[in-house]
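Q: Predict the assembly, please.
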Amino acid sequence: MSFRLYGVLAQQSFKTFLTYRMTSVLVVLFGFMFTAIEIAAGFVYYSFAHRIGGLNFLQYEILIMSLISITTTYQFLFVGAHESLAGDLIDGNLDYLFLRPLPSYWYYALRQLDFPSGVNLLVYIPVTAFLLTRFPLSWSAWSLILVIYVVGVLFVFALNQIVVEISFWYDNLTALNGVPEDVISAASRPARIYPRWLQLILSTGLPVLALSNGIVTVTVKQSTAWQMLVPLVIVTVLLLVFSFYLWQRGTRHYVSAN
Amino acid sequence: MKYISNLFLGFQNSLVYRANFLISLVTRLLQVGLSLLMWRALYLESGQTTIHGYSQTHMMQYLILTGLLSLIFTFEPLFRLARQIKTGKISTLLLRPINLNLESLSNFVGAKLILIGLLGVLIVILTRGYGLSMLLILLYALVSVALWHQIMFLLGTLAFWLVQMWPLRPVISALYLFCGGLLFPLDVLPTWAYQGLRFSPLALVSSDLVQTVLQGPRQPQLLFLYLGLSIVWLIALVGISRWLFRVGLHKFEGVGV
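A: Predicted assembly structure:
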């Protein structure tokens, strides 16, 4: 898929954003409400202790904001496609996709940007960066943060992509769609509060703790953040490959209903 | 009778899609587990045996009960109604001599029948020996189920105006976790926040219900207050839903039928 085509798709999405103004404004507000609730929860927890799981209040808020920045970036880039795939499969709407001389996997995944989430990001990323500047970080530390952020977005994409691709075989398995969000949400606390065995699973097998705690760990100990990044990169690559494989199998299994 | 039949349809449907139930169960347990871990860490780091009057055991008891309640309080009625509106399928339902709100409620109760039954058993076990209070708490639990459904149904009517409904999921989830007291009991909040939240519908169906089960038999006035307020909220939300639904129908174009 060329950059030119992606530009056209982005323009279309932007026009949709402007057309459905009320929806767009509400989506932006919902995003900020969600973040406000998460931050408020942090205030409550830290009214009882100065440090939780080795993190002070500022670091806890970095954890929350960095994770929200990653998931919101995923939403901005990919959520539109993921929300519609199950419906498109049942309605037979993929026919139009296969008629086009384009790699269907990437075309489908990238065809819609969610601009309301983009508006949220305009606040989240600067706030996260500002919170991080409260710590003396070297350029290598900032580079590491950037890598964790990018890989994190790809990880969330791959996880969600696999879950929605299951719709090729099973319809009405609606509860599954919320699983990535719930799993990521369940990892949105300081890593050290989890039992050791769970930390191991959530840092290596399904590295959601690296996703949530990776960036804030840079402010604690950079070498530990590197150790978290490695399994995150490996699992992300594996998930991407698997999601691509599932897409190939799924599209062969797909029967037009249109 | 038609709603009873619909209730059993909802029940049968929940038995057919067992995987949905199991997945919901696991994800909710994850959430409960997270709250338990967070509070375990808080007790450890603060070095206190009680926080805001809650011993660690009492806090865990509260968090587990609110977590179990959240198995019943899911978002299906919201997204079911939204789906019917978005796909235009609601047109066929509008032609039938049924009340869509009751149809949705009966379907929801049917889908949660086993869990509601288990909740009833749990309440009976936890409040045994308190006769009348036990019956009132059971009634309060049933009103809570209806109230939760009404909150979801009301939010579902937003589909008449909103193009995308997915952004509602995280924000309602976060609101429910916070205002419903799943992250912490609401009385650990500053007094002004606690007083502002404790009579909200989300608190009444979750945090207040659990507090009533744990303390209610010994504080009957609290039970009467929460039960009365829940009924008032239920009536108000039914009224608002009816009004929103009527206004929304004027915007509905039935595309997709």
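The interface with chain B takes residues 20, 22-23, 26-27, 30-31, 33-34, 37-38, 40-41, 44-45, 48-53, 79, 83, 116, 170, 172-176, 178-179, 181-183, 185-186, 188-190, 192-195 of chain A (CB under 8 Å). Residues 57-91 of chain A form the longest helix (35 residues).
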